[in-house]
């Protein structure tokens, strides 16, 4: 090291060093000018490939969230409790330890398909059961101050006003309403209406005159009526004070009841089949 310092400090070596440094620097700069763009292109290409691979890969957090949304552990626990089965008993049927099953139900571990298949077979379920979208439990509160009071449609002046008690529920199978029936005046003309499905009406306060087809009756506080809404019906206040009621309309008709078959007989009336209908 001392010799090296001595040589570089010598005037001749110093001048030679300067000449070599200048030439070397020039060569380095020339080489750098020619090679740098190529290296830059290679670097940019590599970065682009890396970015493309990352875009095409599933984010680990997204995968974990996808698994958590399926709530596999909760589904297993519901199946187990529905059968009144303990963790130890389920472990005996599946060959899995009770501690592992406990961690599985609480979401601390994720089951393999093999283990999930064992559990599914115990409860006579297909593997798809654990991955199907669960129906969301509906829970909607309709505050009184948030409801909208609307008049009877198609009648002027209206004989009643109503407020929807289920407007926040999408695709609902029934429509509940709070209705206020006003005392009749000379200008009011109650009109019958009809619609598919069924209707239920409960009187909270006051009296109503109710007509369903050819049937007429008076409903008082505490009375209720359930009827086929496809038959023309009407209701109006029967007293001097407003009548309040809860009305529920159901869009879906109940499943048709099975009609008992008539016993077959050996005698067939000419022109008719055993069931009584026209012969084919």
Describe the structure.
With 280 residues, the protein is of the alpha+beta class. It folds into three domains: 10-56; 63-130, 434 Repressor (Amino-terminal Domain) (Orthogonal Bundle), CATH 1.10.260; 144-250, Jelly Rolls. The protein is built from seven helices and nine strands, in the order H-H-H-H-H-H-H-E-E-E-E-E-E-E-E-E. It has helices at residues 2-9, 11-56, 60-70, 72-82, 87-94, 98-105, 113-122; strands at 149-151, 160-164, 174-181, 198-205, 208-212, 215-219, 224-228, 233-237, 243-250. The strands form two sheets. The chain has a six-stranded antiparallel sheet, with no helix packed on it. Strands 6-5-8 form a three-stranded antiparallel sheet, with no helix packed on it. A hairpin with a 2-residue loop joins strand 5 (208-212) and strand 6 (215-219). Helix 5 crosses helix 6. The model is unreliable at 1-35 and 264-280 (pLDDT under 50).
Task: Name a few traits of the molecule.
280 residues, alpha+beta, 434 Repressor (Amino-terminal Domain), Jelly Rolls, 3 domains, six-stranded antiparallel sheet, three-stranded antiparallel sheet, 7 helices, disordered N terminus, disordered C terminus
The tally of helices reads 7
In CATH's first tier, which class of the largest domain applies?
Mainly Beta
Could you state the CATH homologous superfamily of the largest domain? Answer: Jelly Rolls
CATH architectural name of the largest domain: Sandwich
CATH topology of the largest domain: Jelly Rolls
The percent of residues in helical segments reads 25-40%
| Mean of pLDDT | 77
Secondary-structure-based class equals: alpha+beta
N-to-C span: 119 Å
H and E order: HHHHHHHEEEEEEEEE
Kindly report the spatial arrangement of strands forming the biggest sheet: 1-2-3-9-4-7
Q: What gyration radius follows from the Cα positions, in whole Å?
A: 41 Å
Strands, count: 9
Fraction in beta strands:
15-25%
What does the main sheet amount to?
6 strands, antiparallel
Low-confidence stretches: 1-35, 264-280
């Amino acid at each position: 090291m001392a010799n090296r310092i001595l040589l570089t400090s010598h005037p001749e070596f110093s001048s030679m060093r300067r000449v070599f440094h200048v030439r070397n620097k020039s060569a380095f700069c020339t080489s750098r000018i020619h090679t740098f763009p190529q290296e830059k292109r290679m670097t940019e290409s590599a970065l682009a490939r890396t970015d493309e691979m990352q875009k095409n890969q599933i984010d680990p957090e997204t995968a974990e969230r996808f698994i958590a949304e399926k709530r596999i552990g909760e589904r297993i626990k519901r199946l187990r409790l529905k059968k009144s089965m303990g963790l130890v008993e389920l472990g005996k049927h599946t060959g899995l330890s009770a501690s592992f099953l406990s961690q599985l139900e609480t979401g601390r571990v994720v089951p393999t398909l093999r283990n999930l298949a064992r559990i599914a077979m115990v409860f006579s379920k297909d593997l798809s059961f654990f991955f199907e979208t669960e129906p969301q439990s509906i829970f909607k509160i309709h505050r009184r101050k948030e409801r909208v009071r609307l008049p009877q449609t198609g009648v002027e002046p209206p004989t009643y006003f109503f407020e929807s008690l289920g407007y926040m529920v999408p695709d609902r199978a029934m429509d509940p309403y709070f209705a206020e029936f006003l005392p009749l005046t000379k200008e009011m003309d109650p009109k019958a209406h009809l619609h598919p499905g069924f209707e239920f009406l409960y009187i909270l306060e006051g009296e109503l005159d109710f007509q369903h087809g050819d049937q007429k009756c008076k409903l008082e506080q505490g009375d209720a009526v359930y009827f086929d809404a496809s038959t023309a019906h009407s209701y109006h206040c029967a007293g001097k004070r407003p009548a309040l009621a809860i009305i529920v309309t159901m869009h879906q008709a109940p499943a048709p009841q099975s009609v008992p078959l008539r016993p077959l007989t050996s005698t067939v009336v000419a022109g008719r089949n055993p069931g009584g209908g026209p012969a084919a």
